[in-house]
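Two proteins were folded this term; both appear here.
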Amino acid sequence: MEHRFVGILVNDSWYRAIPRGRMYHESLSNYEHAGRQHGVVPCFFRIKDIRPGQREIVAYVRTATGYRKCRIPAPKVIHNRTLYTKNRRPLRDIRALIDDGKLVFNEWNRYGKHRIHEVLREDPSLREHLPETRMATPDNILKMMETHDQLILKPN
């Protein structure tokens, strides 16, 4: 059976942690679960592991015995989870992949959580599913504590 791969572009420190299967800020199992739901296999690699025109890459893929480096067809769809802010080279490399016909989601991912919430609120079909959200000023926190049993505070 041939697998359809979706690429998850990660940074070096995340890549080194994949064989252990546990990440600090990310859930590999969520990627695996979503992949099963959509009939794709997530593969994890770094920007230096892929180049425009490349037919195959080496990426981490979940196997029966854990995450292993495998040679696979270069994915046509890539989800960018990296944070390249100081070094512009990776941003140019991502742009080159797009120019090569790859579909890259989250090409630029430096948007604040509050801004993303506002964008999602603009879609009527999503609005009712979003939690009440406010900027964490002292007054807003007190108001939210009066109306909710639990709060989640996140840095923006």
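Next, the second protein.
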Amino acid sequence: TAPGQPALSVPLAPLGDRRMVHIWNDRVQALDAGDAAAAWFSTFLGQPCRLVRFDPAGRRLASADWTAGLQAPFQFADAFPLLVASLAGLDALNAQLAAAGQAAVGMERFRPNLVLGGVEAHEEDWLDLLHISTASADSDADADADTDVHAAVQLLLTKPCVRCPIPDIDPVSARPGTQVGDALRRYRQDARMGGALTFGMNAVVQAGAGQVLRVGQPLGARYRFA
């Protein structure tokens, strides 16, 4: 739904043809959602648009420059399939905002897939591999007790996430600002990325594709000290 627009329902099964779409430097196949959806978005946004779904027969890989040679498929995200951030990292940012007389922001500004508790602020910067146990609560208590390399899911943290101006846009009102970027600039100019502002770490699936992650699942980590 959107102001001044009729409600739009889009079926899960795409209605239209395959289309070639361009995302940054990649060209990939997509499945069109049909003319009704295209008309709805075109009217609301005031420019010609098509709504598309990633073609499951297509293949797009994250840059091998950052994945240690691992083939990491993903879909319409910018560059990597997953983003990992920490609750303590958000607390550190909000402390910076409070010191500048600005209101706190929520984690939705940064759109992470996984949010870690029980770690220090921005400790994800130094994590190399996450081991996540997906065992049910009534399974053998010793099955993943040491969260070693045999854990059900292994996520390789590959690259600091360089932030564009999107975190400065209020996700509720869509009003832009500068306070988040200004706060990050005071303490998150990342030498690893040529001084760019970073928040969170991009990640790829090393093992356990198809497993389900849920809030509260235990995890262990391997650190990177180089």
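The beta strands are 18-23, 26-32, 52-54, 82-86, 114-116, 127-132, 153-162, 189-190, 196-207, 219-223. The helical segments are 35-45, 87-99, 179-187. These notes refer to the second protein only.
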